[in-house]
Amino acid sequence: MTLRCPRACVQEDIKLNRLIYKIVPRQADESEFWRLYFSQVLYVLDCVKKHGRYPPPPPQPPAPPPKRVERPTPEEQIESDLDGLCVLL
C-alpha cells in the first residue's frame, strides 16, 4: 500500500492520528490497521451509495407465507353438490 492516502487521512483527522498511536503496534501492525480502516470506509461509502445513509436500515422481516386455500375433499365436494341439487328439487 502506498503511504500517500494514510498520511493524508492522518493529516486531516487528529482523532485518527491519536487512534493509530493507541493501536499500532500494541494491538495490530500498521498495514493491518490501514487495511481494516479502509475496509470500514468502503463499507460506509457502499451503504450510503446503496441506501442513502449510514448505518443501513434494518433488514425487512420476511414476508409471511401465502395463505393456504382449503379445498374440499372429493367426498365433501360430492356432498355439497348433492345438497345443491336437493335445493333445486
How many β-strand runs? 0
SS element count, helices:
4
For this structure, the quaternary state is single chain
Query: What structural class should be given to the helix and strand makeup?
Result: mainly alpha
* Molecular shape: rod-shaped
Query: Which sheet architecture does the biggest sheet show?
Result: none
Average pLDDT level: 84
SSE succession: HHHH
Rg from alpha-carbon coordinates: 32 Å
Q: Catalogue the unreliable spans.
A: none
Q: Distance between the terminal alpha carbons, to the nearest Å?
A: 91 Å
**Strand residue content:** under 5%
Binned, the helix content reads 55-70%
Task: Give a summary of the structure in a few sentences.
With 89 residues, the chain is mainly α. The protein has helices at 4-12, 14-23, 30-51, 74-88.
Explain this structure to me?
This protein is mainly α. It has a domain at about 5-50. Helices cover about 65% and strands about 0% of the residues. Helix 1 crosses helix 2 (about 15-25). The radius of gyration is 32 Å and the shape is rod-shaped. About 0% of the residues are buried. The mean pLDDT is about 85.
